[in-house]
Design a protein that fits this description.
- By secondary structure, the chain is α/β, with parallel strands linked by helices.
- It has a single domain, classed as Vaccinia Virus protein VP39 (Rossmann fold).
- The protein contains 7 helices and 7 strands, in the order H-H-E-H-E-H-E-E-H-H-E-H-E-E.
- A 7-stranded mixed beta sheet has the order 3-2-1-4-5-7-6, sandwiched between helices.
- Strand 2, helix 4 and strand 3 form a beta-alpha-beta unit.
- Helix 5 packs parallel to helix 7.
- The model has no long low-confidence stretch (mean pLDDT 97).
- The structure holds S-adenosylmethionine.
């Protein structure tokens, strides 16, 4: 079982690469809210951890009050931290985010966060999850994702899977000498209904 609490502590370690990754994810969330159409917005964050990427943005962005949604996180302690920081419009669900059951009533979302997932699941699970994005996201909605670039760097294939799913890339942030990367894109294809409950991914040890 991974130490996800310890993993989150890296966000507070200036010697780690993680504060920079966190800032890059937040920046893509800001840009997504900047370009979002007026009106209510729906957020879905899978494997949300403490919600440190999106919750501070919602607290400060002019569109933050328009957002309602769900953070799905399996670890009750991390979920409790997220819940303490979340506004009432954001539900924190303790559940397995790898199955579409956890998205009930929240998909398609206008903002979909797939951060900290793709480095922990098999390649075929990434491909399956990306292929499902048109059912998780509204047309015009933004997906933000992360993946390390350690060899063999899978990000070229991940980016191609997003393109094949109808997601037009708006950003791919990768800093030389750092393993992390952050991608973002807008769904340009029609959104399709989620039909029944399916497993998209499962974390591997
Ligand atoms: C690498 S961390 C990413 C946290 C957050 N998304 C971020 O980027 O700051 C992975 C998170 O996924 C959670 N997790 C692992 N398996 C999960 C599952 N099946 N369903 C929901 N959350 C899961 C862990 O508890 C951990 O908080």
């Amino acid at each position: 079982m991974a130490d996800w609490t310890g993993w989150h502590e890296q966000y507070d370690d200036p010697a780690s690469a993680m504060p920079q990754r966190l800032a890059a994810v937040r920046q893509q969330i800001v840009l997504a809210l900047d370009r979002a159409a007026p009106g209510p917005l729906r957020l879905l964050s899978l494997c949300a951890g403490q919600g440190r990427d999106v919750l501070p943005v919602l607290a400060t962005h002019p569109r933050g009050g328009d957002v309602r949604g769900r953070l799905v996180e399996l670890d009750p302690q991390l979920a409790a931290t997220a819940r303490a920081a979340a506004p009432p419009s954001i539900e924190v669900l303790i559940a397995d985010a790898g199955t579409t059951e956890a998205y009930d009533g929240m998909a398609p979302a206008d903002l979909l966060l797939l951060c900290g997932i793709f480095g922990n699941v098999p390649d075929e699970d990434i491909e399956r999850t990306v292929a499902a994005v048109p059912s998780l996201l509204t047309t015009g909605g933004t997906v933000v994702w992360t993946r390390h670039r350690r060899a063999p760097d899978l990000t070229p294939r991940v980016r191609a899977w997003f393109a094949a799913a109808g997601v037009a890339e708006t950003a791919f942030v990768a800093v030389p000498g750092r393993a992390w990367s952050v991608g973002a894109g807008v769904l340009r294809a029609p959104s399709t209904p989620l039909n029944g409950v399916r497993r998209l991914f499962a974390f591997v040890g």
